[in-house]
Amino acid sequence: MTGEGEKSAFARGVWRAVALTLFPEMFPGPLGHSLAGQALEQGLWTLETVDIRAFARDKHRTVDDSPFGGGAGMVMRADVIDEAVRAAKEQAGDVPLVYMTPRGRQLTQSRVRELAQGPGVLVLCGRYEGVDQRVLDAHGAEEISVGDYVLSGGELAAQVLMDACVRLIPGVMGSSASGEDESFEAGLLEYPHFTRPASWQGREVPEVLLSGHHENIRAWRREQAEAVTKERRADLWKAYTANPEKSGDEN
Ligand code: SAM
């Protein structure tokens, strides 16, 4: 865990992410590059890891056991995870605890926005069949999924969550990249993008984008966003048509 450097970041109120994992070496991984990596270097957020195995109680450093009730696979032990979570909380302070799991509520842009506006996040990364439910309940962990598919571990899912939050921290995205116009912000998927060359392999950029007529461009983009949302995402389209002004709030 941390040294003095991170503690002072905590004191300054910098957004802090802590990954509880059996594979600390998987961090920062992609988060050490590009936007998130630059922001990390600039001290706009902090990233720490807690090695769950360090809290194992036996000489074999066991963190899992077979499931009560039988069945395949192993389950991460409540007592081991509890100690890891306590250590992380002591270090990071009052930060929400999230457990990445396909059983969780699917991550949305609005939950990302809320988490990004808070003090940070402790993210518990599962392995094997997952974590003993009692320790999740005891710590009030929020269960979050990154989609309807099963990964082999929670580390990639945690990185997805952290990346989505970090780019919304004030100062992380430059003026060239605004979050306001993106997919989900108005309850719609985003319109398509085009750049130079204007003509490429016989494919032309839509005329309106070359017109310089800002009102027409805005209207065209809105139409495109509505069309793609209607075609691909019945759930978003339903919410949007029910209340076009507010539907971004639920995403
Ligand atoms: N037995 C679990 C189930 O069927 O729901 C899957 C366990 S998975 C092999 C191991 C770990 O990967 C999980 O504990 C979780 O932390 C992570 N994981 C897998 N898929 C995920 C997803 N879609 N969203 C978030 N985390 C996921």
What is Rg? 21 Å
Mean pLDDT: 93
Helix content: 25-40%
- Main beta sheet strand tally, sense and closure: 5 strands, parallel
What is the CATH topology descriptor of the largest domain? Alpha/beta knot
Unreliable stretches (pLDDT < 50, length at least 5) are 2-6
Share in β-strands: 15-25%
Tell me what the CATH architecture of the largest domain is.
Answer: 3-Layer(aba) Sandwich
Oligomeric state of shown chains: single chain
The top-level CATH class of the largest domain is Alpha Beta
Q: Given the C-alpha coordinates, what overall shape results?
A: elongated
Distance between the termini: 34 Å
Description:
This protein is an alpha/beta fold and 251 residues long. The chain folds into two domains: 163 residues, SPOUT methyltransferase, trefoil knot domain (Alpha/beta knot, 3-Layer(aba) Sandwich); 67 residues, tRNA(m1g37)methyltransferase, domain 2 (Trp Operon Repressor, Chain A, Orthogonal Bundle), CATH 1.10.1270. Helices cover 35% and strands 17% of the residues. The strands form three sheets. A five-stranded parallel β-sheet has the order 2-1-6-5-7, with helices on both faces. A two-stranded antiparallel sheet has the order 3-4. Strands 8-9 form a two-stranded antiparallel ribbon. α4 packs across α6 and α7 crosses α8. The protein starts with a helix and ends in a 9-residue tail after the last helix. S-adenosylmethionine (SAM) binds next to β5 and α6.
